[in-house]
């Protein structure tokens, strides 16, 4: 069952992230590495991301009801938005701590920092691989929650690598400010992930069309035999893997007996563009609205 295998992957990712958090916080405080502590703060958002994803997956699997006719798939989007916004808050913490360390540099324990960051790197790559493999349960799309969780952890793997490189540079040059500079670099990695996740979730909440060229698709629909016009055409997403659309289509007088055939042809063309659910109103007399719009 898809939900079980995905939840198992999230549970493993949650456990590994908790282990990484303990390791990096301990190493950061013991060896006075701001970069290691910054990476640990990033891991906290990993834990939040995976926890939200786990809860959202469980809730979204509930069947539709009379009051929630599309089910609870929007919980996936809400969770991804919380993840993205939480990441932005972490960036501020990382930047503040890094600037403090640049102004007031401290000696770091280089061998310990490298060792602890190395263990974290291996665990992060393992967790990232597990979550990436879990995407195979969704062959036709990328689950937004799994993607956001995997991006969190992969970004943390890059950050762990940066901590190792930074510690080596401090050892070779004796320049203590390199460690907080690495923390700032990690901050920008976190910010990039935050912006991507937030924009993707925001586009769904704002009901932006997932179809890149609505005009091109409209022309494609007009090629269906018997269709003379398409208007009030809208497309939006319920979540990362459910696209819906609604439209009015005018049919000519020669196609009155072929309405089922015309409807099927329109549905097939929309399905080819990733639309899973469509509502089509066929009209024999076409009365265009004064403000015809083709949008999402």
Overall description:
With 296 residues, the chain is mainly α. The protein has 2 domains: 2-205, Alpha-lytic protease prodomain-like; 214-283, Alpha-Beta Plaits (2-Layer Sandwich). The chain has 8 helices and 3 strands. It has helices spanning 2-31, 34-60, 74-103, 110-134, 144-173, 178-205, 214-222, 259-272; strands at residues 227-239, 242-251, 277-283. The chain has a 3-stranded mixed β-sheet. β1 (227-239) and β2 (242-251) form a beta hairpin. α1 runs antiparallel to α4, α2 (34-60) packs antiparallel against α3 and α5 packs antiparallel against α6.
Structure, briefly:
With 296 residues, the protein is mostly helical.
Produce the secondary structure layout:
Layout: H1 2-31, H2 34-60, H3 74-103, H4 110-134, H5 144-173, H6 178-205, H7 214-222, E1 227-239, E2 242-251, H8 259-272, E3 277-283
List keywords for this structure.
296 residues; mainly alpha; Alpha-lytic protease prodomain-like; Alpha-Beta Plaits; 2 domains; three-stranded mixed sheet; 3 strands; 10% strand; elongated; disordered C terminus
- Shape, please? elongated
Number of helices: 8
CATH class of the largest domain: Mainly Alpha
What is the rounded Rg?
25 Å
Low-pLDDT regions? 290-296
Name the CATH superfamily classification of the largest domain: Cation efflux protein transmembrane domain
CATH topology of the largest domain: Alpha-lytic protease prodomain-like
Mean pLDDT comes to 81
Order of helices and strands: HHHHHHHEEHE
Quantity of strands, as a count: 3
Q: Strand order across the biggest sheet?
A: 1-2-3
Percent in strands: 5-15%
Question: How many domains make up the coordinates?
Answer: 2
Query: Given the helix and strand composition, which structural class is it?
Result: mainly alpha
Which architecture of the largest domain per CATH? Up-down Bundle
Instruction: Report helical residue fraction.
Output: 55-70%
Largest sheet: 3 strands, mixed
For the termini, the CA-CA separation is: 33 Å
């Amino acid at each position: 069952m898809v939900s079980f295998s995905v939840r198992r992957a999230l549970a493993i990712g949650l456990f590994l992230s908790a282990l990484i958090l303990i390791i990096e916080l301990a190493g950061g405080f013991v060896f006075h590495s701001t970069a290691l502590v910054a990476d640990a703060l990033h891991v906290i958002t990993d834990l939040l991301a995976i926890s939200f994803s786990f809860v959202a997956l469980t809730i979204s699997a509930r069947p539709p009801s009379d009051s929630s006719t599309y089910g609870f798939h929007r919980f996936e989007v809400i969770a991804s938005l919380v993840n993205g916004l939480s990441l932005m808050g972490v960036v501020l913490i990382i930047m503040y701590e890094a600037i403090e360390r640049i102004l007031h540099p401290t000696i770091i324990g280089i061998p310990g920092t490298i060792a602890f960051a190395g263990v974290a790197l291996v665990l992060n790559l393992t967790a990232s691989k597990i979550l990436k493999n879990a995407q195979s349960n969704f062959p036709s799309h990328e689950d937004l929650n799994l993607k956001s969780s995997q991006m969190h952890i992969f970004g943390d793997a890059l950050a762990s690598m940066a901590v190792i490189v930074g510690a080596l540079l401090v050892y070779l040059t004796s320049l203590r400010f390199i460690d907080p500079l690495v923390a700032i670099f990690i901050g920008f990695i976190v910010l990039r992930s935050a912006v991507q996740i937030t924009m993707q979730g925001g586009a769904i909440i704002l009901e932006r069309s997932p179809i890149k060229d609505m005009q091109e698709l409209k022309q494609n629909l007009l090629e269906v035999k018997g269709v003379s016009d398409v208007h009030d055409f809208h497309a939006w997403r319920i979540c990362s893997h459910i696209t819906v659309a609604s439209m009015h289509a005018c049919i000519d007088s020669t196609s009155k007996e072929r309405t089922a055939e015309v409807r099927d042809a329109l549905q097939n063309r929309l399905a080819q563009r990733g639309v899973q659910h469509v509502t089509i109103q066929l009209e024999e007399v076409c009365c265009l609205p004064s403000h015809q719009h083709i949008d999402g």
